[in-house]
Amino acid sequence: MICLETLGKLRRRHLVNGDSISAIARDTPLSRQTVRQSLAACEDPRYRRQDQPCPQLGPCRETVTAWLEVERQRPVWEHRTAMRLFHALRQEGYRGGYDSVRRFVKRGKPSPCPAVTQAVVPVAFAPGAKDQFDWSVVELGGGVQTVKVAHFRLCYSRRALVAASRRDPQERVFAAHNRAVAAWGGVPVAGRYAHPNPVVAAILVGQERQFNRRFLALLNHYLIESMAGTPAAGWENGHMENPGGTLREWLFPPRLQFARLEDLNAWLAPRCQDREQRPHPDQQDRPIGPLFAEARAQLRPFTAGFDGSVEQTLRVSSTGLVHDDRKRYSVPAAYAGKPESLPADADRMRLVAEEQVVAEHRRAFGRGHASFEPWHYLPILERTPGARRDRAPFQQWDLPTAVETVRAPLLNQPGGDNAFVEWLLAARHPGLDPLDRACTRALERGLVTAAGILNDLSRLTAPTSPPPLETAATRRLTCEPGADCARYDRLRRPEVGHAP
What we know:
The structure is a single chain. By secondary structure, the protein is an alpha+beta fold. The chain has helices spanning 4-16, 21-27, 32-40, 61-72, 82-91, 98-108, 170-184, 213-222, 238-251, 261-274, 288-298, 378-383, 392-395, 401-411, 416-426, 432-445, 450-461, 486-491; strands spanning 130-140, 145-154, 160-165, 190-193, 200-203, 209-211, 225-228, 310-315, 321-324, 327-330, 339-344, 348-353, 356-362, 370-371. It folds into five domains: 4-40; 58-108, no CATH class; 130-298, Nucleotidyltransferase, domain 5; 310-371, no CATH class; 378-460, no CATH class. Helices cover 38% and strands 15% of the residues. The strands form four sheets. The chain has a five-stranded mixed β-sheet with strand order 3-2-1-4-7, with helices on both faces. Strands 8-11-12-13 form a four-stranded antiparallel β-sheet, with no helix packed on it. Helix 15 (416-426) runs parallel beside helix 17 and helix 16 packs across helix 17. The N and C termini lie far apart (147 Å). The mean pLDDT is 76.
């Protein structure tokens, strides 16, 4: 393929000067066929390289190919982007550029570009003027389950914050807002929100929305001006819809494996901070971090976070449980049949009776889940020790290893239930650590008896005597009284009158 300059010379000689193809071929190093094809070409000649050499990527091609083969077996939403694969290769020792990885991945994993169906007006925001909030759904590994992911993004700097939860109740919405405001160090002037049930109660005509009362309390607390987008109009929430999908592709594929939701959120926070070094989508010469510093100076300060706990009054059942949202939480047996207040926040369930917190549980999200605290049922065991057997609160009680080792043979002895309940009553206030040490001592001695372990437990939990008080030298007696045994003999004399 010849260059444009040579093509121009050929066309001028043939079309302007009238030279034949043979004459042109004699004066140039080109063959007559090449001259004829060049003159007949309708498009400008372009250089098309069939195979782009990648000297740095060469040793890593097999690794990338293996990754792509594994991802072809997974759903589309779990496929990693070329940028994710590039960073993974960097950890494997790759020192080349991103373009080589992108071209190689594009040949192995084509991604068609969706057609534009409607023209929209581009948006631009002032620093600290607005944030956008939306929910996204992803899958969390380790017993596959669906989690809700709240996306916050400052529109000017594109600073993002992601928080995951198993459900999207109002308490989670409030907790996500508090976390975003605390991370940003201020409150934006306005916020644009999607239409989840905890936020919008009813969609009216046009832009009119009926927001949830508790969510309005959150907006009034932070003095945020609320704006709602049109349903099925993602372009109005442009900084969240497409960037939110990009953020999900960056963070979640391949499927994450975490034991607890808290571990997932602890892993997400630094990943969002790492994105501050990336260039801004609209200002490619500046990263997100400095732009966020400009926006942060324009945010409105706040004094305290919003208390998003929701309180309700429930009655304790005869089994010492309160039922909330198809879940059960245990309460001390003394409050059975009495009404209790249940303030619930995003992570904890507190049960209040007589103006005191009598029980606290980690909030459960599985339907039909029961959260038991065995210590709540200890008064019942004091009356009926045999109630410990085949009872739900005690079946999954995680006792220390030494206690579990001693308990098994003890319960097979006559009166073993009574002895074990006596141990628990003695360890009710100090906890299971002293009981664990007492059982460990008994196992080390090789003499395991109920009375011996109870004696060791009493010694370990006995209150220590206070140290002697040091008195000042000025308060000591100058003349200490001495012992005078002759005083009794003087009292026995007849003239004193005390003796018979």
